[in-house]
Design the sequence.
């Protein structure tokens, strides 16, 4: 628990915190820390089986702060990890979201996908996502739960130590108020052939981006294509293996494919990765040899795999830096919501 503030804020402030709950034996569930922060994990002051009932269990009321430190009814580091790693998903909505977690339906869709007309695909996709507005957690369209937990813990630590300010190195250089990461997933030959024009558009607005390229089956990858991306100051990353939606279906197959993906990473000297359709399993990331991954949404209401890491800030999964997707993908906005504006992104 003493590393929470130093890892997130790079702050020298040491958090003297003791957890009076979370012995690894109690049932995990949802609870709140104050009126707005939803937590998931063990808590000695009580947990709910579903997120809607979390308001009945406010751990803030069972917390004490004194000069000797902070006493919490839960392990805040475990809660943060549960949220980032999406350990809450199986219990989310108490099993009501069956369609979005039915692997047989997903496998059947991807098996027949290439045979289906576009209008049929769109109809099935809208049916799949029909309940997205009823999902209470994570918070749509962007969730700051992990970030809010860090902020609350920082304030409690300052209060326990009698501090009204602490030295802090700002997240972004030169006083910038934020950081934008622009990515383009190249899923078809048509997309590959449009890459030069897309780089022209990006450069005209002062942007450089990363291109995630599918290494097998979808299209050829000429050396000239790779060299043009890099010579113009853009980044070349790996996008899945063949983008068939099955990379994380089961572990044995994943490990076999991960070796192939790592070989492509070495071949192209690629440092970043994104899985097809944002499917992911963070528990298996130690098989990858990338520096960073971009496969975990902040909120996944409109992604095939429901969940979300509940933070807008990068975090480490072992040795791999996870850079969360904090905006909904264009496909979902255009074809699921039928919204062709940029209002949601703004």
Sequence:
């Amino acid at each position: 628990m003493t590393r929470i503030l130093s890892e997130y804020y790079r702050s020298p402030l040491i958090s003297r915190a003791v957890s009076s709950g979370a012995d690894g034996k109690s049932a995990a569930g949802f609870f709140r820390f104050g009126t707005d922060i939803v937590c998931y994990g063990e808590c000695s002051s009580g947990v709910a089986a579903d997120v809607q009932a979390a308001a009945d269990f406010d751990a803030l009321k069972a917390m004490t702060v004194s000069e000797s430190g902070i006493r919490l009814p839960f392990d805040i580091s475990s809660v943060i990890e549960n949220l980032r790693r999406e350990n809450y998903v199986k219990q989310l909505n108490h099993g009501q979201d069956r369609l979005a977690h039915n692997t047989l339906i997903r496998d059947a869709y991807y098996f027949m996908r290439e045979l289906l007309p576009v209008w049929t695909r769109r109809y099935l996709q809208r049916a799949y996502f029909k309940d997205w507005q009823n999902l209470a957690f994570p918070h749509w369209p962007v969730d700051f739960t992990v970030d809010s937990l860090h902020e609350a813990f920082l304030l409690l630590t300052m209060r326990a130590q009698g501090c009204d300010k602490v030295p802090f190195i700002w997240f972004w250089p030169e006083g910038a108020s934020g950081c934008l990461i622009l990515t383009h997933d190249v899923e078809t030959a048509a997309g590959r052939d449009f890459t030069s024009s897309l780089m022209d558009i990006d450069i005209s607005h002062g942007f450089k981006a990363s291109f995630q390229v599918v290494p097998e089956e979808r299209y050829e990858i000429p050396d000239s294509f790779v060299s043009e991306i890099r010579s113009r100051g853009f980044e070349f990353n790996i996008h899945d293996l063949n983008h068939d939606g099955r990379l994380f279906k089961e572990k044995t197959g994943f490990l076999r494919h991960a070796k192939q993906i790592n070989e492509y990473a070495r071949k192209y000297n690629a440092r970043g990765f994104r899985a097809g359709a944002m499917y992911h399993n963070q528990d298996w990331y130690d098989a990858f040899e990338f520096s960073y991954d971009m496969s975990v949404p902040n909120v996944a209401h409109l992604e095939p795999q429901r969940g979300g890491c509940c933070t807008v800030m990068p975090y480490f999964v072992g040795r791999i830096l996870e850079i969360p997707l904090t905006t909904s993908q264009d496909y979902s906005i255009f074809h699921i919501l039928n919204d062709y504006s940029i209002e949601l992104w703004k």
The CA atoms of residues 274 and 295 lie 5 Å apart. The chain has two domains: 1-174, 175-336.
